[in-house]
Here is the input.
Amino acid sequence: MQQVRVGLIGTGYIGRCHAIAYAQAPVVFPLKGQLVREMLAEVTPELAARQAESLGFNRATGDWRELVADPAIDVVDICAPNFLHKEMALAAIAHGKHVYSEKPLALSTRDAAEMVEAARRAGVKTLVGFNYMKNPATQLARQIIARGEIGEVVHFYGTHNEDYMANPATPLDWHCRKDSAGLGALGDLGAHIINMAHYLVGSRVASVSGDMQTIIGERPDPRAPSRLLPVENEDQAHALLRFESGVMGQIETSRIACGRKMGLGYVITGTRGCISYTQERMAELKLYRHDDDQGRQGFKTLLLGPEHPDYAAFCISAGHGFGFNDQKTVEIRDLVDGIAAGSPLWPDFEEGWRVSRVLDAIALSAERRQWIHVEEIQ
Amino acid sequence: MQQVRVGLIGTGYIGRCHAIAYAQAPVVFPLKGQLVREMLAEVTPELAARQAESLGFNRATGDWRELVADPAIDVVDICAPNFLHKEMALAAIAHGKHVYSEKPLALSTRDAAEMVEAARRAGVKTLVGFNYMKNPATQLARQIIARGEIGEVVHFYGTHNEDYMANPATPLDWHCRKDSAGLGALGDLGAHIINMAHYLVGSRVASVSGDMQTIIGERPDPRAPSRLLPVENEDQAHALLRFESGVMGQIETSRIACGRKMGLGYVITGTRGCISYTQERMAELKLYRHDDDQGRQGFKTLLLGPEHPDYAAFCISAGHGFGFNDQKTVEIRDLVDGIAAGSPLWPDFEEGWRVSRVLDAIALSAERRQWIHVEEIQ
Amino acid sequence: MQQVRVGLIGTGYIGRCHAIAYAQAPVVFPLKGQLVREMLAEVTPELAARQAESLGFNRATGDWRELVADPAIDVVDICAPNFLHKEMALAAIAHGKHVYSEKPLALSTRDAAEMVEAARRAGVKTLVGFNYMKNPATQLARQIIARGEIGEVVHFYGTHNEDYMANPATPLDWHCRKDSAGLGALGDLGAHIINMAHYLVGSRVASVSGDMQTIIGERPDPRAPSRLLPVENEDQAHALLRFESGVMGQIETSRIACGRKMGLGYVITGTRGCISYTQERMAELKLYRHDDDQGRQGFKTLLLGPEHPDYAAFCISAGHGFGFNDQKTVEIRDLVDGIAAGSPLWPDFEEGWRVSRVLDAIALSAERRQWIHVEEIQ
Amino acid sequence: MQQVRVGLIGTGYIGRCHAIAYAQAPVVFPLKGQLVREMLAEVTPELAARQAESLGFNRATGDWRELVADPAIDVVDICAPNFLHKEMALAAIAHGKHVYSEKPLALSTRDAAEMVEAARRAGVKTLVGFNYMKNPATQLARQIIARGEIGEVVHFYGTHNEDYMANPATPLDWHCRKDSAGLGALGDLGAHIINMAHYLVGSRVASVSGDMQTIIGERPDPRAPSRLLPVENEDQAHALLRFESGVMGQIETSRIACGRKMGLGYVITGTRGCISYTQERMAELKLYRHDDDQGRQGFKTLLLGPEHPDYAAFCISAGHGFGFNDQKTVEIRDLVDGIAAGSPLWPDFEEGWRVSRVLDAIALSAERRQWIHVEEIQ
Here is the structure.
């Protein structure tokens, strides 16, 4: 069986999630390739060595350039901060590696386009870590829509709200600076919901009218808390959408949305039904079908079960739950199978670039106070 | 005790709701005036007589003009179809009557302005039937916001979605024609959510970017079901809002939103908390406060209880429920007390006109594909 | 149309609820008789007069004996404290009046039996105010069961928990004394759930194994708060049931169940489905059908709508809500129609007596620590 | 670092869950010992070899006796059917191994007692797989109770209902036979809820009054579906409990409870609050505190977050979800740490035996129709 040897860069918040999923994936799924946790890069050799041991990687390095060049690596997994994605991905591609990058793909649409082009020329596979769409509940939503169970989609409402920056005393970090993060809530959270919209509606966002605000204008300097530094990007944003299919949509994202801990959600209205979902109850989906008997209509709560996509690999009993790292495990199954079997991966860098275009269009629309065609964004 | 003698025009859907509330109000509340169900008008004398008997009114007439001119009437209550509101209200005002009209106030902002002006000149009191804001749960939401319990409001999301026209086989009725209804979902349902936004946010909508669609373009002619007639106004609409205070808002309305039977709802985000509500569970409000202890934060479900506004008059035990007609009963309490005590009523015709301006601004924005200042609408 | 002239005794908590329902009923329903709010009795003539005016009754008296003897009264409605039910009912029956009594029917099964017998001999109609079973959601549950939509019932779980006595500082009142209330939580709340069990399961409770406790043994004397008085009946109780049909059941009741404001609820399991309900969301019912398609099974939330029993009289749009007093209005419709049309009323005194037997059996079982056949209770 | 070498017997439903957890645990937690997936036993050498490869075990055997005797095994993990637990555990103990067994511990209390005694004499550690109590949400419930946040516990209501046998066409399997499973729903599901009761209430069940039924008396023979075989144990059971502390409790369990897919849940009432939980929403806990401000009381939905026990190891962001296998991962952390650090494990065989006694007491009580003291069961 072909090996798929992974080099992981970064073991912070999301890097740890990847590591848990790498450990779990081969036991959960009958993978098409042999997954090898080959090498791990961190900012110092010491940290890298410690993390390699605790996360189950064979080798470690304090220099990510060494990792991307290593001949025993098949795929480079980028879990470093946003501003490094581009440089790392281009270097990995230059060495002929497949690249698996966390979202957002890059700080700008232009950078993303460069990465797409480099990967295309090199003929390597790419995957972006939009893990929420890998959740079986959301795969089920897609299945229901694709089968026409709610008729034709006529409206999409999506949110990705969290409150991790709701407290004004939370110090400024890289998320709040343009040079390290690019956009604020839109880039960090909104990216997920645009990808979700593409996936679920089955059509791309064509034009947008957006608005956004920074609510907490200054935050403590993490190195000198009594000093305040300016927040450089938006705390909240929302937009009207039109999809290429003509469907109307609406999205909302915020990093200061008090009470929303994992407030990714959607309500998708069709001509004959409706789907409603919130990631805070990630193992259930609500489904309404207008064709049900009079007097017996209503939203039905579907609990994930063995009939639904990818759930049975974790547990064959219905309703037994599904966890955050489990959806990443599905993503890694896709990665390994795609590389081993030579089949396409999605969401790939091109999708990452498309999402970036929509986000930039929203930001531009908010500035110009008018609708923007996504195609205008280069 | 001063009498408040009511003349009710129209006993269809909402007229019956008024009649139930009139019957209930004097027993529920210690009213400041003596409510008298004096006269009722319907389209024929026979129907009027039958309805007066079953709804408990003293007299009946088949001619509303007789009612508005009757000297024994203090307030004219207009529950006729939208296109008649203006004519009836102006006639009532001309006879010096107070006017209580169902929403939307008129078919156009211009008409609404005329009604406001006539009432102002005549010095009569006016009230518009935005009954959802009278629900104790929503009054509680306002109280929580006004007391600063969720900090400063930073975002408003509101919906009024229903599915009463979701079935394409449902025949065309007056709601779907411009000359009888004006706007579609926006006028019928959106009006409530704009009024709600004004009430809860405590600031008026200043500008909007809207979008709208007619999804079911033709419907059966009710008189010849095999013939299809064009639907003349929108099935669904949504908009971004900016309030005068600078707060960002978003609304959504639809009459074909499968599964939403009474889908009026809101999520109001503040700097230190959040409120969430849906009219389908009209006796509960969800409240999140970010200052709660770490590890003990979460949305709390408040059931209406005697400490909350206007609930105790119906039942002094908490959580015992609240019904659709009960909120209209609160509205009628306001009407009677306002007239008897000479105190102001709200939402008055001016608010009806303001709501109309916002709705027209949304429709214009959808057409022009740009933000519209509400002040531009005359 | 035949008149149904009501004499109401008591205008406290539940008496006010009756009064609101009397005001509402003739407008909501096309009653088969003409409901007349004829006379009202309270503890003093002054209070009676005040209440008659505010509650819309024609006459008032400070002596309930005068009311039960009045020739212009057709039905006596007893909303006085429990310990008076028997004396008042027997007096009313002696004057040939129909009797409508609040629950629990009497302080003991023996007293209840006497009342049943007196009514039977006099040939008068009786009704007990088990209003929760009149709620359209619960009527819908019964309809679903009766039609076999969940197969054969195999298990009943019912609760009526509240927390009105949860605070130990709440003074002792008549609910806590044997001579004025008889049983504690069982009598006040448990009565509802036993009646509900009979209604929904469609079979009577045949035997019980119960347990009960007084948790707060002493409470402040309301007249001298620093003095503590003993609580004489149970704060909480629960029991296993066997119905005559062989079905297993379980109930739970408490007046100190923190957080349950109106915690009447049930879960009814059938061989092919399940129904779940809580009175705190009194306008919705959850329904599961095991025959639904694989992968599309789940509990469906049914909102009350015009297809459901008795809802349309209040509002013809689905999901618009239903209130506490509305279910009493349904009960009063039953009362008036039953008397005017000469048709049977239910739950009648016999059902009140049957419920009392079950409650006494639970109390006896708790004492003897063994199963008790309900028939043993006389 | 000390090695903890595991020998796993059985890779069916729950064995796979263990295997996923073994893969995940060392990456999720900083374990105190080095976990080694040393050997796996299945019913044939071929199956064992295949499973060892896919589940990541070093060695395989078709003979579990070889595994329990292997000198390179520190702990034997028994995931075989119930009727084999005793024999395997005694053999493992005879070889001085620690034993980690799935529930129920044995087919009878007597067998369980023998296992407890053997382990005690051998001085080996034991752990029973009551994984639901390892879920952070339930650990949080325990923490809240232990800190007195809901006052003194006064009532426990617990369920473990599922519907895996609801369909009468589901063939008879070992769960339905006395010689292979012992009890039915009580043994398979009820065991969890009794353990949960002990854990959460902090007191042991002292006496019970139970009832039970077999609803589907015959099921198809899996080898000849047209032939029906008798079901030998109960489909549903429920019981009243008294804890040693005097607290009243109630439990309910069923394997034919239509619609309950993972219907383990509890409502725990205290003198100053209440906790409510259902495993179908395993990442949230509802908490009510009676001391909250008047008008601001209500059940609060706590989403698991980094402040709660054991959640942060999986994800440091609140509300991001928790899965079925994750709670088993917590259990395995306890196993490895307990063995490596020499600290006590819980729930151990003694707890397994205590649970067995309660279950047998319920079954005996159902037969005798009277309360049974748990101590009577030997």
